[in-house]
Amino acid sequence: MDLNELRLQINDVDKQMQELFTKRMRLCFQVAEYKIANDLPVFHKDREKEIINRVTNDAPDDLKGATRVYFQTMMDISKCLQYQQFFANADSVPYKPLILKGRHTVAVPGTNGSYNHIACSNLFDDFEPIFHEDFEDIFRAVSEGEAEFGILPIVNSTAGSVAQTYELMKEYDFKICAGTKLRISHCLAVKRGVKFDEIESVYSHEQGLQQCSDFIRENNFKTHRYANTSLAAKFIKDSEKPYAAICSENAAEQFGLDILRKNIQNATDNYTKFILISKETLKSENANTISVCLALPHQSSSLYRLLTKFSVAGLNLSMIESMPIANTDFDVVFYLDFHGAIDTPEVAKLLSELEQELSYFKFLGNYEEV
Ligand SMILES: O=C(O)C(=O)C[C@]1(C(=O)O)C=C[C@@H](O)C=C1
């Protein structure tokens, strides 16, 4: 058969389907009105089950699976549109303006010269760093009012996500209010006079060790994890042994160490993104990224169905990450970033929908990369 002829027939079917789709959605809008008036939820599990069973039963054997997906997707779209009616007047998440000008206190992991410390200079003209060893101490410092903001690494272009930061964002009730990116270039630093051949062990944050794994392997170094790259540099300064630190050149200089090798990371283009956190939701005028954290039910296609919501709302996802939840049999929590601003109606509606539909949902902030 002729291809053009087949396409003409498809056009004809599409026309009928389009009319029927419009007709079906208009009926769903009426259902939504009824539900709003009678305080009923959008999602009706048994009704969906009944429809899916009926249409898959009626479908030819070779199209049963596809028919189920097709109708399920149509009902998912129907729910998204109904939620838009439900949340037509949804309020934006309340927020205050983010002000980075002036002097601010910032809880910073590590010490002078740490990458976190350098990242702070991207964000603030004037700031007082309050150094802490642990990432969790940063959350505590902000929580107890010791510092106004906290800064943490969130992802590296070579080693991937910083799991501990994600984990803490889930546990604590903090909001991301800004992001910044730093080009990371590690060096191998030793106490004055120590020779390269004497080194057996290197100390660094696990991200530093991962980002320099090729160099470490080539030189057969033993690795030791340390809380922070700059604190590893400080430890080397105080150590009697011929150890080395993997840290920033800045940190090596800070502690008077000799730099034996520069740019030892696997990738020349090595970047880390940092987040600035605060207790309140603070948003800059040009904030364009929204981060959320959520759990999905253990059902087939639940991730695909979640993504349908973003697609129907016309919102563009820029990042998705999943992390296992401790003490469960591989239950996972998802972290998503998408473009948008909380004070626009499409985002306000989608956030209300996610909050309503998901058993676990958390808004993590609306910010821009500075
Ligand atoms: O029948 C309903 O209650 C509807 O809202 C319609 C509809 C559908 O698209 O068919 C949509 C959502 C419900 O979960 C079930 C069915």
UniProtKB/TrEMBL annotation:
Catalyses: chorismate = prephenate; prephenate + H(+) = 3-phenylpyruvate + CO2 + H2O
In terms of PROSITE patterns, this protein maps to:
ACT (PS51671), CHORISMATE_MUT_2 (PS51168), PREPHENATE_DEHYDR_3 (PS51171)
Give start and end of each Prephenate dehydratase domain: 105-279
Which compartments does it reside in? Answer: Cytoplasm
Q: Which SUPFAM superfamilies does the record cross-reference, listed alphabetically?
A: ACT-like, Chorismate mutase II, Periplasmic binding protein-like II
Entry's Gene Ontology BP terms? chorismate metabolic process; L-phenylalanine biosynthetic process
> What EC number(s) does the entry state?
4.2.1.51
Species of provenance: Ruminococcus albus 8
Q: In its keyword annotation, does this UniProt entry include Glycosyltransferase?
A: no
Residue ranges of domain Chorismate mutase in the record: 1-86
UniProt site (Essential for prephenate dehydratase activity): 272
The pathway entry for this protein reads as: Metabolic intermediate biosynthesis; prephenate biosynthesis; prephenate from chorismate: step 1/1; Amino-acid biosynthesis; L-phenylalanine biosynthesis; phenylpyruvate from prephenate: step 1/1
State the Gene3D superfamilies in the record: 3.30.70.260, Chorismate mutase, Periplasmic binding protein-like II
Q: Where is the ACT domain?
A: 291-370
For this protein, the record's SMART domains field holds:
CM_2
Q: What is this protein called?
A: Bifunctional chorismate mutase/prephenate dehydratase
